[in-house]
Design a protein that fits this description.
alpha/beta, UDP-N-acetylmuramoyl-L-alanine:D-glutamate ligase, ten-stranded mixed sheet, 15% strand
C-alpha cells in the first residue's frame, strides 16, 4: 500500500520517479514493482477470473504487460489487447517478457474481468473515438472492471473527464495518489480506491485529509480555556442555533449567541445576549475571552446583515465566515478579509465561491489556492470533494465522504465544528481540517436520511474516536 499521505500531480509524480531513477532504480524495475503490486491486488480480489488486459503504447501499457504475465504465471486465463506496439523502452521490455496471447483491439472479445492499462497519469486529451469505442465495448462486456493508476479518459490533476467514461469497480493508484483520485467528477468513476507502493517518496503541498489527534481537556482547564465561541446571529434563527449547538457538542467550553432581542436559545446551556445596535455588538465582540467568532449562518442579505458582517470582521478574534456572510461580502471578500489581524476561515460551497471572485470556478484546487492567497485567508471549499487551503498554499483533500450530508443545515453545523476547534487555539488551517474530518465522520455515524440535530448528536462520538 502507498505509505504516505501526499497527493502528487502528474509533474510531481514524474519528478518523484526521476529521483528514484537517479538513485539507481531503473525504469524497468519501477514498472516491475508497479505491475506486480497491482497484479497481486487483482489476484487477492478475483483470483481465477478470466482477464483481459488492455495495454496502451506508453508505460501504463507496460505495467499492463507485467500484470498480465504475473497473472498468467498464477494460472489465470489472461489475454492482452494492444492497439499499438509499445513506444517506450521499458514497455517494450515488458512486452518481450509476456508469454501469453496478444489480440488486436478490433478482434478482442470481452472477458469476465477487464483491466484498463490504456492510459494513466499525464493524459491531456480525449481518447480517440475508435479506441474508446472498443474500450467501452470491452468494459461493458465484463463483470468486473479495474483501472490501473487512473481510468483512461481522466485528466490526472483536476478531476476532469476527457471522455464519458463508465464507473470502475476498483482503481489501483501506482506510487502515489493523484488529485483526480479525489476530485469530482473523476472521483465518482474510481470505485474502490487502493494504492500500490513503488518506493516513491515526495513532498507535496497537497495531502489527504487525515484523522485528527485531539487532546482531551486537562484538570487545569475551564470553560474559557476550552474556548468561548461567539455566534453572530441574523434574520433566521434556526441556522445560528444549529451552529451554536454544533460548536457546543464538538468541544467548545462556552457558546454564546449575539442576537436581536427576542432571539430564542436552542438550549438553556447556550447563552443568548441581546444586542441593541452595532456599537453594542462591537463592544461584546471585543471581550478578550472570546476565542472564535462565527458569522453567516442565517445572517440574511439585507443592510443589517452587511453591518453585522462588517462588525464581525473588525473584531480581533479568529473568525469563521459562512453562508449568507459570503454572499454579502461578494467580490469584496478578499479586500475585506486580508486586512484582519486574526486568522480567518471561509467555508463556501461552489455557488457561494463563484460570487467571491470575478472568474467562474474552473479548477477547484487552482481557484481555491488563488483565493486563499489573495484574501490571506483559509478556504474550505465544500462539496463531495471538499478541499482546504491555507494562505501559504498548504492544502488537503477530504477522502472521507458521506453523501447524506447533502441536506439543509449541515453546512451551518460544519461552521460550528470548525469554530469550536479554532477556539482551542490551534491554527485556522488545522481547525478547518479537523472540523471537516469530524463533520464527515459524524455523517457516516448518523446513518441515512438524518436530520441536522441527529448529526449534531454524533459529534461527541467522533471526538472520542480522535482522543
Amino acid at each position: 500500500m502507498i505509505n504516505h499521505g501526499n497527493i502528487l500531480t502528474a509533474a510531481e509524480m514524474k519528478l518523484a520517479e526521476q529521483s528514484l531513477i537517479d538513485s539507481g532504480v531503473s525504469v524497468e524495475q519501477l514498472m516491475h514493482r508497479a505491475g506486480q503490486g497491482a497484479a497481486q491486488m487483482i489476484w487477492r480480489i478475483a483470483a481465477d477470473m478470466p482477464t483481459l488486459v488492455l495495454c496502451g503504447p506508453g508505460n501504463n501499457g507496460g505495467d499492463g504487460y507485467v500484470i498480465a504475465q504475473w497473472l498468467l504465471e498464477k494460472g489465470v486465463d489472461v489475454s492482452v489487447v494492444a492497439p499499438l506496439d509499445p513506444t517506450t523502452g521499458a514497455a517494450q521490455n515488458a512486452k518481450s517478457l509476456w508469454r501469453g496471447k496478444t489480440v488486436a483491439l478490433a478482434d478482442a472479445q470481452p472477458a469476465a474481468q477487464f483491466v484498463d492499462c490504456l492510459f494513466g497519469t499525464g493524459l491531456a486529451r480525449p481518447v480517440g473515438d475508435q479506441w474508446f469505442g472498443h474500450f467501452t465495448r470491452l468494459f461493458m462486456g465484463a463483470k468486473r472492471r479495474v483501472a490501473i493508476d487512473l481510468p483512461s479518459g481522466v485528466e490526472s490533476d483536476h478531476g476532469k473527464l476527457l471522455n464519458d467514461i463508465p464507473q470502475f469497480d476498483t482503481t489501483i493508484a501506482l506510487g502515489a495518489f493523484k488529485p483526480s483520485h479525489f476530485l469530482e467528477p473523476a472521483r465518482s468513476k474510481m470505485g474502490n480506491l487502493v494504492g500500490i507502493d513503488i518506493g516513491v517518496t515526495a513532498d507535496s503541498d497537497l495531502a489527504i485529509l487525515s484523522k485528527p489527534r485531539i487532546a482531551a481537556p486537562t484538570s487545569r482547564d475551564h470553560k474559557y480555556s476550552r474556548g468561548l465561541v461567539a455566534v453572530v446571529a441574523g434574520a433566521m434563527p434556526g441556522a445560528a442555533q444549529l451552529t451554536a449547538m454544533a460548536a457546543q457538542k464538538s468541544g467548545a467550553g462556552y457558546v454564546k449567541i449575539f442576537a436581536s432581542p427576542g432571539f430564542p436559545s436552542p438550549h438553556p446551556s447556550i447563552v443568548v445576549e441581546n444586542v441593541q445596535d452595532m456599537a453594542d455588538l462591537q463592544q461584546r465582540l471585543s471581550d478578550n475571552r472570546i476565542s472564535a467568532i462565527i458569522v453567516g449562518p442565517g445572517l440574511g442579505r439585507d443592510d443589517r446583515a452587511k453591518d453585522l458582517l462588517t462588525t464581525a470582521l473588525s473584531a480581533d478574534a479568529p473568525l469563521v465566515i459562512d453562508a449568507d456572510a459570503l454572499t454579502v461580502a461578494g467580490l469584496q471578500f478578499a479586500d475585506l478579509v486580508k486586512v484582519r489581524s486574526a486568522e480567518t476561515v471561509a467555508t463556501p460551497h461552489a455557488g457561494e465561491f463563484a460570487g467571491l471572485t470575478p472568474d467562474a470556478l474552473q479548477y477547484k484546487l487552482d481557484d481555491s489556492r488563488q483565493l486563499a492567497r489573495e484574501a490571506e485567508c483559509n478556504i474550505l471549499l465544500k462539496g463531495s470533494d471538499t478541499v482546504i487551503f491555507s494562505p501559504d498554499g498548504k492544502a488537503s483533500i477530504s477522502a472521507q465522504t458521506c453523501p447524506w450530508l447533502s441536506t439543509a443545515g449541515t453546512g451551518d453545523i460544519l461552521a460550528g465544528i470548525i469554530a469550536s476547534r479554532l477556539a482551542t487555539g490551534i491554527s485556522a488551517y488545522k481547525a478547518a481540517c479537523e472540523g471537516q474530518w469530524l463533520h464527515s465522520r459524524a455523517g457516516q455515524l448518523a446513518g441515512p436520511a438524518f436530520t441536522p440535530e441527529m448529526l449534531i448528536d454524533q459529534l461527541p462520538t467522533t471526538l472520542q474516536e480522535c482522543l
